Fold YCII-related domain-containing protein.
Amino acid sequence: MAKYLLLKHYRGAPTAVNDVPMDQWTPQEISAHMQYMRDFAARLEQTGEFVEGQALAPEGTFVRYDGEGNPPVTDGPFAETKDLIAGWMVIDVDSYERAVELAGELSAAPGAGGKPIHEWLELRPFLTEPPTITE
């Protein structure tokens, strides 16, 4: 089994087919989208492929260390101008092909007008330990 991170970009990814921003959806369209996500996760829980997932608020701040005795440096919030990750899901699957299959299915979540978004999802494998050489 291999773990993959599925990232849902609200901004910063290639343009989706149904490219109406979520802040222009009706409450019913948002509810249908969220239900699709819950149903997708529940189905993957049944197969043992779902690990975790969360929707994210649009606000965010970059933070970095600024040396001993100094407070952390912050830059942000960036909700209006930067790439925006809307949410993420971790899956644990048998193969890369299965991860691509599930990402494609998740991409079809409904959006404006109840039509599939066909959004681009970023699929990233978890970093694993490099193999060690034994003599």
User: Anything to note?
Assistant: The chain is about 25% helix and 25% strand. Strands lie at 2-11, 50-55, 62-64, 73-75, 84-93, 121-125.
